[in-house]
Design brief:
This protein starts with a strand and ends with a helix. The protein is elongated, with a radius of gyration of 37 Å. It has 377 residues and is α+β, with helices and mostly antiparallel strands. The strands form five sheets. It has a six-stranded mixed sheet with strand order 1-2-3-5-6-4. Helix 5 runs antiparallel to helix 6 and helix 5 runs antiparallel to helix 8. It contains eight helices and 20 strands. Strand 11 and strand 12 form a beta hairpin. It has three domains: 113 residues, Hypothetical protein apc22750. Chain B (Translation Initiation Factor IF3, 2-Layer Sandwich), CATH 3.30.110; 121 residues, no CATH class; 72 residues, no CATH class. Helix content is 29%, strand content 34%.
């Protein structure tokens, strides 16, 4: 048994206190009053009274043992009621007519649960889903941190020129899961310690995002209005370009091609689009914005699935989608055919019980090709 500040903890975890509660615990159920008793014989009491001044440690030990016996019986009685603790325990010493002496122990049997420590800290990271197609500080990620009282935010920018960026002034537009928007105007982010780096990280500033709204956020757009360097202040009047990729594809692309990547590589023979989003002339071997070499990011020629998807969208039922797929099946990479056929068969089965599955099946087919495209990219 361990005793700590009036609270006794038994070997099996059963807890006893003389108070009304346990710190760090909640009482979930009151199971009623419990009591028990233990007796000391009359011979022991009369002998102790006659030699009170010479009471030995052996006599004291007998009293302590009697008390422990009463407490053990009390715990067993409480446990039979389903309790794991006793509150308000009292010990009474009472003489009986026979001359014996009793120790009565009582309390209230309860069920308790320990409080679970819940962290007050909140954190959210959002990739920026718009970009600029020239050599300005490119916002790539917004990080929000705080607690239940206040949320602060900082900005990560890709610094293509390795300029001494001192600060940027931006508008931040958040979108939540309900497609509701919150625009925070004229936010000044200061870069104190990491100038001349490719990826620069600002100091924290206060945001206008409510703590309860933080986890609902799904998207952030950052509109750059001006930035400061030791050489002067520069305005940015360009309209940003919105990223065309889904959040999932954007995250995968960044993981493979770098945090500044916003578009898949593509080329029509006359121009080519770099992963950074800049459109270069066919004769350019490397991107004039980010320096990526075309030969390093270009993909092998592959099946143009967009045409097939467009034809599927004109159909109504999964059986018709499968007919479209079968017209293209020989052009599709053999490693993908079985998965696509399984999607169709699953869609056919579900459509019998759940209604039209056209949109779901098309979405899954697109995902197969998108994932394959990201692996190539």
């Amino acid at each position: 048994m361990k005793n700590d500040g009036g609270v006794a903890v038994m070997a099996d975890g059963f807890m006893i206190t003389t108070g009304p509660s346990f710190e760090g615990y909640s009482v979930t159920e009151y199971l009623g009053f419990v009591s028990s008793q233990a007796l000391l014989g009359s011979n022991f009491i009369s002998g102790l009274a006659a030699n009170m001044t010479d009471a030995s440690r052996k006599d004291t030990a007998k009293i302590d043992q009697c008390k422990e016996d009463a407490e053990d019986r009390l715990i067993k009685t409480a446990q039979k009621k389903g309790a794991n603790a006793i509150i308000g325990m009292q010990i009474t010493y009472a003489p009986f007519e026979s001359g014996s002496f009793g120790i009565i122990v009582s309390g209230t049997a309860v069920k308790i649960v320990k409080h679970v420590a819940i962290s007050d800290a909140v954190h959210k990271e959002l990739y920026v889903t718009n970009y600029y197609n020239r050599l300005v500080p490119r916002p790539v990620k917004v990080i929000l941190d705080g607690n239940s009282n206040e949320i602060n935010m900082k900005l990560l920018c890709y610094n293509y020129n390795h300029d001494d960026i001192l600060s940027v002034r931006v508008d931040v537009e958040y979108t939540n899961l309900y497609d509701e928007r919150l625009v925070v105007k004229n936010v000044d982010f200061v870069f104190s310690d990491n100038v001349n780096l490719s990826l620069i990280e600002s100091d924290y500033v206060q945001s206008k995002v409510a703590p309860n709204d933080l986890l609902l956020l799904k998207d952030a757009k950052v509109i750059l209005t001006k930035y400061a360097t030791p050489r002067g202040v520069y305005a940015c009047n360009d309209q940003p370009i919105n990223v065309s990729l889904s959040h999932r594809r954007l995250e995968a692309l960044k993981a493979k091609r770098g945090i500044d990547a916003v578009e898949k590589y593509r080329s029509d023979g006359m121009i080519w689009t770099c992963n950074c989003g800049h459109v270069n002339e066919a004769g350019s071997e490397e991107c004039i914005v980010c320096g990526r070499k075309q030969k390093d990011i270009m993909t092998k020629a592959s099946f143009n699935y967009e045409e097939m998807i467009d034809r599927m969208k004109e159909k109504e039922y999964v059986v018709e989608l499968k007919d479209v797929l079968m017209q293209y099946i020989k052009e599709i990479d053999a490693s993908m055919r079985l998965e696509l056929l399984e999607i169709m068969e699953s869609g056919l089965q579900y459509e019998k019980t759940r209604g039209n599955m056209k949109e779901t099946v098309i979405e899954k087919v697109e995902k197969v090709f998108e994932d394959a495209s990201l692996l190539e990219n």
